[in-house]
Amino acid sequence: MIKHRYAHEIDPNGGSAAAVLARMVEPGQRVLELGTGPGTVTRILHAKGCKVTGVEMDPETLATCAPFCERTVQANLEDPQWVAPLAGESFDAIICADVLEHLRDPRPLLNQLHGFLKPGGSVLMSLPNASHLTVVASLLGGRFPYQKNGLLDHTHLKFYGREDLDALLRECGLLWQHWHTVQVDPAQAELKAYWHLLDEETQAFLKAKCADGEVYQHVVRAQPATDAAHLQKLENDRTAMIKAHEAQVLELNAQSAAQKAAWLLEKEVTTVQNVALINGLMAQEKNTQATLAWTESQLQNHKQSIQELHAEIAALKQSTSWRITAPLRKLLRKISD
What we know:
Elements: H1 17-23, E1 30-34, H2 40-47, E2 51-56, H3 59-65, E3 71-74, E4 91-97, H4 107-112, E5 117-128, H5 133-140, H6 162-171, E6 174-183, H7 192-196, H8 200-209, E7 215-224, H9 227-317, H10 320-324, H11 326-336
Parallel strand pairs: 1-2, 1-4, 2-3, 4-5
Antiparallel strand pairs: 5-7, 6-7
């Protein structure tokens, strides 16, 4: 098997753009895949029972996909005649997986796709995001470093952000119905070296200000912009808003429940603490009452002793000896004076 520069294994249930695109296709559908490459998406579609027509410019690459396709067409997508072998055919889905950015002008191709879609059919596409934070970081460093693959693959001729892609679709009579993003942390992307050159304050600023700064790829399902498609988009937007509202309500309820639980726990702890404090104060009061009772008892004893002493003194003053010694005490006072 030929080793293609874009060949890689993916998890059909994973979060890669190829896996997301493949999951947008229903089992058994007829699919036109433009730019099959090494067949990353083709193999998944084949496993789902889809009938795939693969279009690829490189004959050797196309040969690797042939076992997984119902039909293959070797053609250059920038040649307006690429459609000739497919005249009269129609498909449930047309896939452009990381293809449009390789074309000098993708508009002629997109304009040709309407005629190949069955009623209700969709154009599915993935494109790298030109506003990823690592691209911004490289530009801040005065660089636009093309790579062998990734965001700045040296074969990329066009670069799109979200609004640019939306405008391109509208110009070509297409209306997006579902927009998915593949997120990659700038510290993990292939241009991470330029991100790491920025100080933490600048990184935080860019993360706060750059729209789609961590979006690595856009994955979009679009349909011809008919009245039915506009109505479907309104319904999709309504459903998305309802889901977002429900998610917000669930989050608020969870926050409220957590706050209530924390309040009840704090209240319980406070109650336990207050009970302990009250018990302590009651014990202290009991000890104080006991001390007061002991002190009162001692005071009464002292009062009784004083009364007894006063009685003894009064009895002494009434005694004969006190009267006999009165002149002597008087003399002693004079001597002391």
